[in-house]
Description:
Blueprint (H helix, E strand, L loop, with lengths): L1 H6 L4 H47 L9 H17 L6 E7 L5 E10 L11 E10 L6 E5 L6 E4 L4 E11 L2 E4 L4 E9 L3 E2 L2 E2 L31 E5 L2 E4 L2 E3 L2 E5 L3 E4 L2 E5 L3 E3 L4 E4 L2 E5 L5 E3 L4 E5 L9 E5 L6 E4 L3 E24 L6 E17 L23 E2 L2
Parallel strand pairs: 4-6, 4-25, 5-7, 5-25, 6-8, 6-25, 7-9, 8-10, 11-14, 12-15, 13-16, 14-17, 15-18, 16-19, 17-20, 18-21, 19-22, 20-23, 21-24, 22-24, 23-24, 24-25
Antiparallel strand pairs: 1-2, 2-3, 3-26
Helix pairs in contact: 2-3
Amino acid sequence: MFRHFFRNQRGNVAMISGVCAVPVMFAVFGAVELTNTSNQRAKLQEAVDEGALTGAGRLAFVSTQGNSVAQTAAIATARQVAANAGIKAEVQYVATVAADRSSLTLEAVADHKALVGFMGFGDQKLTVHATAENLGSIPLCVLQTKEGKGGIEVGDTSRIRATGCAVHANANIVVKGGAMITADKTQAVGSVSGPVSPAGNPGALRIPDPFADMPLVPPTICEGKPETIKNEKGSLTYLAPGVHCEHFVIDKDATLILQPGDHWFMDHLDAKENAIIKGDDVALIFGSTKKINFADRAQVQLGARKSGPYAGFLILTTRENVEEFTIGSDRVSKLLGTIYIPSAKLIVSTAGSVAQDSAWSIIVAETLSLKKSPTLVINNNYVGSGVPVPEGVGPNRNAPRLSK
């Protein structure tokens, strides 16, 4: 009887199936819980992002309550977004404002309960955070547009002095040799290396081209015309606004006065050997393969357009322009306005100061390179200059932005 009992296998299939079902069941429950946790974390992150943006937007306002207005707004917004998203877990929020009031960080810790758990097994704390910048607090005065390779390179004994505004690279910032960058804020999507004061911030979010939608279609009336070189030597020339098909070479003590308006240069503009180029209320717009070269001891004093479609802009190119715009003279003292060459390179290679007499300057270029020993001065006296600052740069960058 006992031998028959131990040889009986009719119940084995049920027993084996029951044993195998346990890990399968845990695997299913685990996958369900992983999906649930990911969804809850994503919803909580969205709430924190919205809260940080709201709080950072309040930092621009002066309040007798100090930072509490921004912190309260951040937490209230995050709670509302979380509630709308169906988050029922208990969440603790902490909002922190940077010492210079340039950013707000919001952290959230939620007690997440597992959908299927036993005596608390599977429960966990979800922690997320977001940092948003109050962009209106620090004017953007230098923007390097190209992502990936390149960036802002400051070598030899060069200096960028951008006190009171921000320098941003969508690639890397490299300061080497005896060079230096001084700015209220220096940041890069990639790395920041070398002497920067205060210390630079790597890992920033990309800042897109603020003028990507601005029309820059060059006139076509120069097509088919033979190339001519207008070489001005020792003369005084007044140039009316319009389309200029000639290659201008201002040479040997010659003076070129640009009259107010939009100047379309469909060929190069060179200045050398003590030449002088002056103009106020002007925009210099270059064709797709054309550029400037301010060399030798050329004296340049230019102020941007005060009205019209290019108000606030001084030097522009089409977006197909990949040339090198070169400042090689130490007497380029006034560049008041915005230099917008989004696909071209700006090279400053001289000694002495550049743009120091400008009330304000803004540079938006594919890459920026300083060589030898120039000091590129970026002033920020926006009020009272008579030249409006374009939206998206300078102090007109009021919308907060997530930085982390």
